[in-house]
């Protein structure tokens, strides 16, 4: 038989353990459901048959009412008997009301019976509803877009992995950059930091206790307090920023910045080694934000290991110690205060996120309007819209301040509610402590200790209330970095690829096909042989695939079918670095770094001497212009070279390509955005660059490639014509049509118009024609001498054909002359006849 006293002790223990066990079971089940994403899986799968949610809520509510009724009975009994209620019974009933009340609230907020509600899938972690709200915004800022995409990526990977444990394992690829692998010094520092945290926890426990001891000594005049005060001062100094915290910072800072430095360097290097398809799909802002994700990972680790874990230990120790000192009532008050505070704080933080998003949106809009107004001042001034921009900016500032006030007001209300909860808990604890002191069950020193412990509980509670949101933001930033670090370059050297060996520069395109989106071929079955040293020009409409051919040759992209070879070597089979080392590119919009002219030119060959840079600039016809600047070659060109004119910028880019001394030259519309005079200067520089080298040119202005060895017409990704200028004009095909759009008239139209002239003006017209022919050919000769293909100006066959047909062409006309595109054929004949008549009359007068 079990003694009656033992039975009573067991029942008392059960009354204390029952609510604690229920709460721990609920917490563990909710945590497990959150980590394994049970709620998410249930929402995606077909819902099984479950009991009525409403019925379960009613049953749980009735269950709660039974405890309320028991407390009522217990209180009535205490009043009648004029005695204190039974402690273990009252603790049991109040604890059960607290625990089952949390379950009741959780059940009301959940969608189905047995789901974990918002725990782990709530607003603090970026719910699906929030994503839909964010994605539906029409005025989404870049920051909001990146946050939305980060949340979507996080949720997608969570769904794929199935639980948080597998999700966290995805970050193991970053482990070598987070933990100092191979650095024993930093590893020992990290271990020492953990010891410092344990020492700090001990100090946080001892300081309030020592304060209570001093108060008790002071209340007893017979004892000397100095030893206790000195020990208290030692503890305070040890726990201050001058003691253990200073040691911890000294140990931790190298470890923290190792991970930040390693992640930043690794992410930047990885991005720079990715292929063109990645860089063309991302903005620089996206990539910079992803690099900063390394800081987010370090912050998340520090929040969990150096803040959350020590604070959790402090809270648990404080609750246990206060419960032992002031009895189970104090433990219940502390636990109830912390629980209510966390529930209220997390919901208030979630509610404030909407106001925070509106505030951030207004802030970004204000900055966008301000930036557009300042950068577009010339346009605003030219159209007399300064007042409009001023009003637009004023409205944005007013709207932002309204959103700011709403957010701050909501935050103040949130802090006020949290303070009320903490104050109520503190007052309840204080009344309990005073009651026990009054009854001789505690000392005044213990009351001072209680106040200090409560002060230490406030900061951890507020930290944990915001931990979910902060961790969510850090995970979103880390997800962006992880996504980029997992991206593999689509163009890279094969394993054991041999170095590229340049022989003569013969290029072959063999049935090349390529598509950016795998749907429509931008390059479709292109086969082309380019002999060594030849200049080949690609012409055609925008989007026909001309520039793509150059990108495929330089291996910015890889062909999807067919092959491209140089001197019999497939460009995919050679080492990528050695291939690009032999190719020089002058793009349409050359990019210069925000550095000096000297450093920008030397970028073509980092090891080049100053004299070699000068020679390259002389060859590019820019040396004298540079010397005219105040700082000469040390002049800073500004971001992307904005301080230089278009022609100067292009010639600096050409000088950079000349300095590289490439074996194959690729020119992608290198003169399309400059005037005719500047174009002639640039063409002269290009002629020196291309001399003796295999050159592939993309051009819209056909006058720049008239004298190319071969002109290839590309249409819809296919080669439709190829040949020299004169042959293509004579063929009267697509090239002739493009040529006519950049000249005043088609050749055959000019002949017809000349035949219709009046017989009385025939002699004068012939004289005029001869003179016009001579002038036009001279102009063509001048253009040819400065053309990209000026390396072959002595081609007599081409010049003879030019004398036959070039007399009535306008080789230096701008692209798409409006008159040529707007007049009909008959109108063109009439206009030309009138022009010829006027010209003949003028010649007669001069004669």
TrEMBL record:
Chain residue ranges for the region called Disordered: 124-152, 751-847
Cellular component GO terms, alphabetical: membrane
PANTHER family found in the cross-reference section: ATP-BINDING CASSETTE SUB-FAMILY B, MITOCHONDRIAL POTASSIUM CHANNEL ATP-BINDING SUBUNIT
Keyword Transit peptide: yes
Protein family according to the UniProt entry: Belongs to the ABC transporter superfamily. ABCB family. Heavy Metal importer (TC 3.A.1.210) subfamily.
Keyword field: ATP-binding, Membrane, Nucleotide-binding, Transit peptide, Transmembrane, Transmembrane helix, Transport
Bias (Low complexity): 829-847
Alphabetized Pfam families for the sequence: ABC_membrane, ABC_tran
Listed name of the protein: Heavy metal tolerance protein
Biased composition (Polar residues): 124-144, 782-800
Location relative to the cell: Membrane
Domain ABC transmembrane type-1: 191-473
């Amino acid at each position: 038989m079990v003694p009656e006293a033992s039975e009573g002790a067991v029942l008392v223990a059960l009354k204390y353990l029952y609510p604690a066990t229920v709460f721990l079971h609920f917490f563990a089940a909710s945590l497990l459901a959150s980590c394994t994403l049970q709620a998410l899986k249930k929402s995606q799968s077909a819902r099984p048959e479950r009991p009525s949610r409403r019925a379960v809520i009613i049953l749980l509510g009735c269950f709660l009412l039974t405890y309320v009724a028991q407390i009522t009975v217990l209180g009535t009994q205490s009043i009648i008997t004029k005695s204190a209620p039974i402690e273990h019974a009252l603790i049991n009933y109040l604890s059960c009301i607290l625990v089952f009340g949390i379950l009741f609230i959780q059940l009301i907020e959940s969608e189905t019976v047995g789901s974990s509600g918002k725990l782990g899938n709530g607003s603090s972690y970026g719910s699906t509803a929030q994503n839909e709200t964010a994605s539906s915004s029409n005025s989404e800022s870049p920051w909001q877009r990146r946050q939305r995409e980060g949340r979507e990526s996080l949720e997608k990977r969570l769904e794929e992995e199935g639980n948080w444990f597998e999700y966290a394992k995805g970050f193991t690829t970053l482990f070598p950059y987070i933990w100092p692998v191979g650095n024993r010094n930093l590893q020992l520092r990290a271990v020492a930091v953990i010891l410092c945290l344990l020492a700090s926890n001990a100090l946080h426990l001892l300081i309030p206790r020592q304060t209570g001891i001093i108060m008790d000594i002071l209340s007893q005049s017979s004892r000397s307090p100095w030893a206790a005060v000195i020990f208290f001062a030692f503890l305070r100094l040890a726990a201050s920023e001058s003691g253990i915290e200073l040691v911890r910072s000294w140990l931790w800072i190298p470890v923290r910045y190792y991970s930040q430095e390693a992640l930043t360097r690794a992410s930047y290097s990885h991005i720079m080694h990715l292929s063109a398809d990645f860089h063309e799909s991302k903005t620089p802002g996206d990539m910079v934000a992803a690099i900063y994700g390394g800081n987010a990972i370090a912050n998340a680790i520090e929040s969990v290991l150096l803040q959350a874990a020590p604070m959790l230990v402090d809270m648990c120790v404080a609750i246990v110690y206060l419960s032992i000192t002031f009895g189970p009532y104090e433990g219940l008050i502390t636990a109830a205060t912390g629980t209510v505070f966390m529930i209220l704080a997390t919901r208030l933080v979630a509610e404030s996120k909407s106001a925070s998003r509106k505030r951030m949106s207004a802030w970004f809009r204000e900055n966008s309007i301000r930036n557009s107004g300042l950068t577009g001042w010339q346009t605003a001034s030219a159209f007399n819209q300064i007042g409009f921009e001023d009003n637009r900016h004023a409205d944005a500032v007013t709207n932002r301040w309204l959103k700011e006030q709403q957010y701050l007001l909501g935050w103040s209300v949130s802090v006020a509610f949290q303070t009320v909860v903490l104050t109520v808990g503190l007052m309840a604890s204080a009344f309990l402590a005073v009651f026990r002191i009054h009854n001789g069950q505690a000392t005044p020193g213990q009351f001072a200790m209680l106040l200090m412990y409560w002060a230490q509980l406030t900061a951890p509670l507020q930290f944990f209330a915001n931990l979910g949101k902060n961790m969510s933001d850090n995970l979103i930033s880390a997800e962006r970095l992880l996504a980029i670090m997992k991206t593999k370059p689509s163009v890279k050297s094969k394993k054991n690829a041999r170095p590229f060996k340049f022989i003569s520069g013969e290029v072959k395109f063999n049935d090349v096909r390529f598509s950016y989106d795998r749907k429509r071929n931008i390059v479709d079955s292109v086969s082309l042989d380019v002999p060594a040293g030849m200049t080949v020009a690609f012409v055609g409409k925008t989007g026909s695939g001309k520039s793509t051919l150059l990108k495929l040759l330089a291996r910015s992209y890889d062909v999807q079918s067919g092959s491209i070879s140089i001197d019999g070597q497939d460009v995919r089979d050679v080492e990528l670095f050695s291939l690009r080392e032999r190719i020089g590119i002058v793009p349409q919009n050359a990019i210069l770094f925000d550095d000096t002219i000297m450093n920008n030119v030397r970028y073509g060959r980092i090891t080049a001497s100053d004299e070699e840079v000068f020679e390259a600039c002389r060859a590019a016809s820019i040396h004298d212009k540079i010397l005219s600047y105040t700082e000469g070659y040390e002049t800073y060109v500004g971001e992307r070279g904005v301080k230089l004119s278009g022609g100067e910028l292009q010639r600096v880019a050409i000088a950079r390509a000349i300095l590289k001394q490439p074996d194959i030259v690729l020119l992608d519309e290198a003169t399309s955005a400059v005037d005719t005079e500047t174009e002639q200067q640039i063409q002269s520089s290009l002629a020196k660059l291309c001399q003796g080298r295999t050159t592939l040119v993309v051009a819209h202005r056909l006058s720049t490639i008239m004298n190319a060895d071969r002109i290839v017409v590309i249409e819809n990704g296919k080669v439709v014509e190829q040949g020299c200028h004169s042959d293509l004009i004579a063929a009267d095909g697509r090239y002739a049509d493009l040529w006519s759009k950049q000249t005043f008239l088609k050749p055959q139209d000019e002949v017809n118009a000349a035949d219709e002239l009046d017989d009385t003006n025939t002699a004068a017209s012939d004289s005029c024609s001869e003179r016009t022919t001579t002038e036009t050919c001279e102009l063509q000769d001048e253009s040819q001498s400065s053309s990209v293909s000026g390396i072959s100006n002595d081609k007599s066959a081409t010049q003879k054909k030019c004398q036959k047909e070039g007399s009535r062409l306008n080789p230096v006309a701008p692209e798409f002359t409006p008159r040529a595109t707007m007049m009909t054929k008959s109108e063109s004949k009439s206009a030309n006849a009138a022009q010829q008549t006027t010209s003949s009359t003028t010649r007669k007068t001069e004669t």
